[in-house]
UniProtKB/TrEMBL annotation:
GO annotation (BP), single: regulation of actin filament polymerization
Residue intervals of the SH3 domain: 575-635, 679-739
Biological source species: Colletotrichum cuscutae
Protein name from the UniProt record: Protein BZZ1
Stated role: Plays a role in endocytosis and trafficking to the vacuole. Functions with type I myosins to restore polarity of the actin cytoskeleton after NaCl stress.
Residue spans of biased composition, Low complexity class: 538-547
């Protein structure tokens, strides 16, 4: 800021501005107290900081001493380090010592702030406030003198006004007085007195004006200039103390800088390889590479480590080899590409270390790890493909030569389709599979690698149908059981599961039982194991001569298990026990219950006593299941029992994948009745015949019995259960069994109840059902034929509305018929 020749002053510029100036100076002096409080708090912070630095250094000295050995040579060194520390720990000790020295500097700085800055500020603030008050008192005295002069002038003015009034009064008296001479003399004398008072008043005015001039131009400016000098003197002293504070802090920082420079020198001596060298020297030891993995035979299946090379195995190996060879070239190129990317990022990292490139090293290292993860993933796939290729080629040669592989495309089958290899349904939980684009071959995901490479190429629609039929016939033929199980297996053993029930009702056993060849069975489908003895090995001549090496198969697991409780020979129960089939899968959730899958055959042990639960035997397991989950077969005479496997009836395989003949998603069981001990089920009987109008309703015949699931909530409909399905029926069409009998006797005197209105949510509220009135069972419902089917298309709404209007008139006729019957019954 440039200096001016003559600095402006308060007296010359502000004139009568003492009071605001005095207030401003008072603020400046009171500010000194805030400044000295600041330095006191700063001193306290520095002292507290110094104490915390000392405590921090002490804390981490103790931690360093505890972790010195693990940080230097690890947890399990081959040689103890003694009192030696790694280079990094030595540097760390230097940093902690430097921290303690810096703490001492901050403590000293805090003491200096108190003694050299805060205390002088407090003293100056007190002295400056005293001077300011003296200026204020003097200015007040000058103002009082000015006001006194103004008061004297006002008094003189009042005397002058009174003299003028007296003259006027004398004049009026002289005019009305009888003694004119005396009155005139008094009047003249009063005029003289008035003139003297006037002169005195004029002199007082001049004196007052002169005093005012001196007040505003001499006295007040002098006081204000002195006040200005006081404010500037305060600023000068404040600057001096600020300078002292800055010098103290600069000295402290300079000392700290020297400490940090010394620390930087020590840090530069800590070379990165020194810690590694110390760790290596104290952890030298012998390395033993883990041995390679070898083939371990199963404890129940004695085998060797040679590859199986029969025809079935070759199909699987050919498919594996085809996939590996197809991907190997791409994988090698992908590995080379990923490796080049990793090397490029590593070069960037080295340039960052050298300081030639400005990037975040952490982000670069993160990219390196991400690329290395991708590289390792692709490289593992490459190694797997190479080893698979070399292993299969060394065992069976290149079996992919001349193979006609299927052009498979992965898809999820939304329509139930049969697998051309195993014959099972591709649906539900097993809906994912493959479809050949050329010949239409379909298979499960699990069957893909077992499909022979015999694709005939692109086929027409008729040729695909013919191939499909041939493949399904071949798949079903493989599922038929053999007459007896071989005692010695060749390289392609066949495991057979035979029928466990001697007889069931006609057509029922064939739909409920299976015999599966070469496939695993679910543990829940297993029958009780029969006691048997280990079968002797057949002579060597019985083994196929085409295999290079013979394998003796271990006996099946049933040979090691004794007969379980509740099982019988051939799995048949007592002749008087009723048998049935599970309509739905039931999962046990309490004591006494048993889990049974859909389609499983069960034997009734205890019938339903009204609780909705029956006790059954499924294989060798016993427990209770919901009665509505079981479809009981009518009793039939049992065939004489024969233990020979050849005398058992063959089980017919169903392509549906379940015992239920219809294809579709897995069915959900109905509402389960309360367990034993709970409230008994409530039954109702149909009073009239009723035809269901939608899939959500039950059809009824007179006298038909249902299980009541939910009574009428007020909308005129009740929920009942029949055949495991819970649907709605008109609440007024059903009644408890005792009331139903009475109603049947008096049915001619009763009228068919009013059908409830039911809102069709599928038609968004534009259609309300109106059922006709049905005759008792002896007569058909006259209005049943006029009820239109439900429609969901908006295009048909208008047409059906017009039809409904015509049919409404016919329904009115039915209502009239109803009223006439009421009158006749009342009469």
């Amino acid at each position: 800021m440039a200096d001016v020749d003559v600095a402006p002053t308060f007296g010359a510029e502000l004139k009568d501005g003492f009071k605001p100036a005095n207030t401003w100076v008072a603020h400046g002096i009171s500010w000194l107290d805030e400044i000295q409080q600041f330095y006191r708090e700063r001193s306290a912070i520095e002292k507290e900081y110094a104490a915390k630095l000392n405590a921090l250094a002490k804390k981490y000295f103790e931690k360093k001493n505890k972790k010195s050995a693990p940080l230097s040579v690890g947890d399990t060194p081959a040689m103890t380090p003694g009192s030696l520390e790694s280079a990094s720990l030595t540097t760390w000790s230097t940093q902690l010592t430097t921290l303690e020295s810096r703490a001492d500097e901050h403590d000293r700085y805090g003491n200096n702030l108190l003694s050299q800055v805060a205390e002088p500020l407090k003293f100056l603030g007190t002295r400056f406030e005293e001077l300011r008050k003296r200026h204020a008192d003097y200015a007040g005295k000058l103002e009082h003198e000015r006001d006194s002069q103004y008061a004297d002038l006002r008094k003189t003015k009042a005397k002058y006004d009174a003299a003028c009034q007296e003259v006027e009064s004398k004049r009026k008296k002289s005019e009305s007085s009888f003694d004119k001479a005396k009155a005139q003399s008094a009047y003249q004398q009063q005029i003289l007195d008035m003139n003297n008072v006037k002169n005195t008043y004029l002199i007082a005015i001049n004196v007052t004006n002169k005093q005012k001039e001196r007040y505003y131009h001499d006295y007040v400016p002098e006081v204000m200039d002195s006040l200005q000098d006081l404010a500037e003197f305060r600023t000068m002293k404040l600057n001096g103390l600020w300078t002292v504070a800055s010098q103290l802090e600069a000295a402290m920082l300079e000392s700290s800088k020297g400490l940090m420079q010394k620390l930087a020198t020590e840090i530069s001596r800590n070379q990165p390889h020194l810690d590694s060298m110390m760790y290596i020297r104290h952890n030298l030891g012998a390395f033993h590479e883990p041995p390679d993995k070898v083939f371990e035979p199963s404890p129940v299946w004695h085998d060797d480590d040679l590859m199986i090379v029969d025809e079935s195995a070759k199909i699987y190996l050919r498919n594996v080899l085809s996939k590996s060879k197809a991907h190997l070239g791409d994988l090698r190129r992908e590995v080379d590409k990923k490796r080049r990317e990793v090397e490029g990022i590593k070069r960037i990292k080295q340039r960052i270390r050298e300081g030639t490139e400005k990037k975040d090293e952490v982000l670069v290292v993160t990219q390196i790890f991400a690329l290395q993860e991708d590289l390792h993933a692709v490289d593992r796939r490459r190694v797997t493909a190479e080893v698979e290729t070399s292993t299969i080629t060394s065992a069976v040669g290149d079996v992919t030569l001349g193979a006609k592989n299927h052009n498979f495309k992965a898809q999820t089958f939304k329509i139930p389709t049969n697998c051309d290899l195993c014959g099972e349904r591709i649906w539900g939980l097993s809906a994912k599979g493959f479809d050949c684009r050329d010949c239409g071959y379909t298979c499960h995901n699990k069957c893909e690698m077992k499909v022979p490479a015999d694709c005939p190429g692109e086929q027409t629609k008729d040729e695909r149908k013919k191939l499909k039929a041939e493949r399904q016939e071949a798949a079903n033929s493989l599922l038929k059981p053999t007459a007896s199980s071989p005692t010695v297996a060749t390289d392609s053993p066949t495991l057979t599961r035979s029928n466990t029930m001697n007889s069931l009702s006609s057509g029922y056993a064939h739909s409920a039982r299976r015999s599966i060849t070469g496939g695993p069975t679910s543990p829940i489908d297993e029958v009780p194991p029969e006691p048997s003895t280990p079968r002797p090995a057949a002579p060597a001549s019985t083994v196929s001569s085409t295999t290079a090496r013979k394998r003796v198969m271990a006996p099946p697991p049933a040979a090691y298990i004794s007969e379980l409780p509740g099982s019988a020979p051939n799995g048949s129960g007592s002749p008087d026990q009723q048998k049935g089939k599970m309509l739905y899968t039931f999962e046990a959730s309490g004591d006494g219950e048993v889990s049974v899958v859909e389609g499983r055959e069960v034997t009734m042990l205890e019938p339903d006593d009204g609780t909705g639960w029956v006790k059954v035997r499924a294989g060798y397991k016993e427990g209770i299941v919901p009665a509505s989950y079981v479809d009981w077969a009518p009793p039939s005479p049992m065939v004489a029992q024969n233990t020979g496997a050849s005398a058992r009836p063959e089980s017919t395989y169903s392509n549906s994948g379940s015992s239920i003949g219809t294809a579709g998603p897995k069915k959900k069981g109905p509402a389960v009745a309360p367990k034993r001990g709970a409230k008994k089920l409530k039954y109702v009987e149909a009073l009239y015949e009723y035809t269901a109008q939608s899939d959500a309703e039950h059809s009824m015949t007179e006298g038909e019995r249902f299980v009541l699931i939910k009574d009428d909530p007020g909308d005129g409909w009740a929920e009942v259960e029949k055949g495991g399905a819970t649907k709605s029926v008109p609440a007024s069409y059903v009644q408890a069994p005792p009331a139903a009998a009475a109603a049947a006797e008096d049915i001619v005197l009763r009228d068919i109840p009013q059908m409830p209105q039911k809102h069709d949510t599928q038609q968004k509220g534009f259609e309300t059902e109106r059922e006709g009135y049905r005759e008792p069972p002896r007569a058909a419902d006259p209005a049943a034929t006029f009820y239109p089917e439900r429609v969901t298309s908006v295009r048909l709404v208008k047409r059906y509305q017009s039809q409904r209007e015509r049919r409404k008139s016919k329904l009115d006729d039915v209502a009239a018929y109803r009223r006439s019957r009421e009158r006749s019954s009342i009469g």
